[in-house]
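Supplementary notes for students who missed Thursday's class. We covered one full example, reproduced here. Read the sequence, then the structure, then the short commentary at the end.
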Amino acid sequence: MSDLIPPLVSDGQILAQVNGCLGLITLNRPQALNALSLVMIRDMAALLSHWATRPEIQAVAVLGAGREGKAPAFCAGGDIRFFHQAAHAGDTALDDFFTEEYRLNHQIHAYPKPYIALMDGIVMGGGMGISQGAKLRVLSDRSQLAMPETGIGLFPDVGGGYFLSRCPGHVGEWLALAGQTIAAGDAIEWGLGDVYVSTDNWDSLVTALCNSPQPSAEHVVATIMERADLAPTADPKAVAERIDRHFGLPTLSAILDSLKHADDPWAQETHAALLKRSPTMLAVTLELVRRGRALSLADDLRLERDLVHHAFHLRGAARSETVEGIRALAIDKDHAPRWQPAEIDSAEVAAFFTSPWELDSHPLKDLA
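Structure (token representation):
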């Protein structure tokens, strides 16, 4: 059995288990809401590569370790404190993080065996990156999905330009720009989840996957589906119509103007939220989602790798919108980021979409 689990380097931040035909990966950094570190990314990639070659493993499931007495988190994203420190230190591990994370995202989307994401609790940023490529995305009452990167002066990466742009209508633009959190019903309606299992049945599902006999991939799926139910939801179609009215407009300024002059509380709250974001990164985000509709996953990830390089290096750490956004949220916690410039500079936005690499030297050049 031991040769089914390769040596791991994350010092327990990733736990691996084999139950019959099922390989289980547990994100084990609960005190940080299972946010991804570089060593976690490396361990996940190594496990998936190893299990892809082993006929004994017919399916893989990934879940987040729980916190005693606290709400669950599947994965709250990447380790943004590390981003801040590494950017100021000029640490090349920052570049390694994004290159290897995006490779892992692509690996999951292309995985040759059923990959199942058990998305209980918080699923944000990097957590979406390791779940949206799953063959089966399982949600609960406690699932809270979001791509909140604009709140820290970044953009929805980890394939966000690809999977958000494929939401119906202009829901993707709204989720990308506003960073809105959605629950299971809306996520399933908008193509960001597949199956709902109620909280009452969640523990028995996890216990069955970890301990009950799992002789085949079909049995693994059946274990989940026998506990599946209809997800509670409001009226996502009506919400989507309201979103399309504003977020289908051609430019960021038109979207903001439309929200500003609408006389309903939702539009006013959305407008107020967007005004707190970096104008530059909102413009980059909108352009990413609009371009993403015409891109393959590999091309989208290559574009995102360009964008994240510029997010940290175009101006340098001292003037990076992303470094400033992380400072305000997680370092000084003053929640008062000083965006610069306060207005959109179209030339700077265009510079984000110029790759710093030739195609044959791009760090993700080999993604198919």
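Commentary. DSSP finds 16 helices and nine strands in the chain. The CA atoms of residues 306 and 332 lie 28 Å apart. If anything here is unclear, bring it to office hours.
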